[in-house]
Amino acid sequence: MLRLIATSLCLRCQSAAALSLHIRPCATLIPAENQQTVEALYDLSVDIQKVRKLNSWVLHQSPAYTKEVADLLKDLGASGPVIARILTVHPEAVLCQPEQMQIQRELWMSVCPKHKELVGIIENFPASFFTSYSHHDNQRNNITFFQSLNLNKRIITKLMASAPLSFSRPVEQNEVMVRTLQQAYQELGGEEANMKIWLQKLLSQNPFVLMKPPEVLRENLLFLRDKGFSTAELLHLLSKLRGFVTELNPDTMHRSMAYSQDTIGCSEAELRHIVLNCPAVLYYPEDILAERFKGLLSIGISLSQIKETPTVLELTTQIVNYRIQRLRVHGYDVRTGSLEVLNGTKKDFEMSYGKLHLRSERPIFNPVAPLKVDD
């Protein structure tokens, strides 16, 4: 019996040893951290723990150019805390070769010559500036193209920062999309003199419009035309949608419009009027529209009020309830009054609310009442 136990223990020890020998080589496959990089980041007050948690792979790469990145940012006027924030959020910057960083600096300064502004852009969009891909020729060609459109340098800078892929691809693709936008604007009756301003506004509001296929814009405009919108109304929609018309498709627009029409119980002409005043009806899916309608109706707002002021559908139920509670303090009842006071941004609402507050506090002056005069 003892012999059997001893034999069993020996077999277990042998299998454990074999297992450890099998595992040990795998452990050595994990490369050690690049201590020069870690120490350099420590010296710059970078949050190493955060880097290890989110981008640990960067610390294992070699070569790394931490000093070169820091020197470039310092030369642009970045402070120590700013450099630390940039490298904490985007440690991949240390993998960019110094030659590429210098080319990027020259390209960006051709549209953003002020160092302070460029540092601010790098802080907010570090991945757009520190790129390891060699698309410099495409970037240069795209910058030249957008400059040829006489676009404001700030607009071009914003495009490069928020939609960098549109600058890393061949310029011909951007030329096609811009030409499609210009053609749609002109075909819908837009004035040539205003086209540059219109294009600037559209691109600044939605830089990703450049990444969409031109066919999407044509299909969506054709769908809306078939729904009875005039050319002037289509131009109004194209401008009011701020370029997000390329984010839509005929199927989703049809479902959203049909749901709104069935819920409100309006005619085709009335629906078009609602869409022109509240384009959100086109892109909110049915579940969001259902939640908005339900929330408004549950607090006593009527469908006729929503039809008259459809922009209230752009507000979440929580925002509507909060604003109604504040208005109720001053005796304003949205169930019997206009919904316009609910609309707009937080700043817009505060202005409307302030006017109501002053009105409620202002004493009523009676011109025929006798004046009280001290004897």
From TrEMBL:
A Pfam family this chain is assigned to: mTERF
GO cellular component: mitochondrial matrix
Cross-referenced InterPro entries: MTERF, MTERF_sf
Gene Ontology MF, one: nucleic acid binding
GO BP term, example: termination of mitochondrial transcription
Domain of life: Eukaryota
Signal peptide region: 1-18
Record's keyword terms, sorted: Signal, Transit peptide
Assigned protein family: Belongs to the mTERF family.
Protein's recorded name: Mitochondrial transcription termination factor 2
Biological source species: Champsocephalus gunnari
Classification lineage: Eukaryota, Metazoa, Chordata, Craniata, Vertebrata
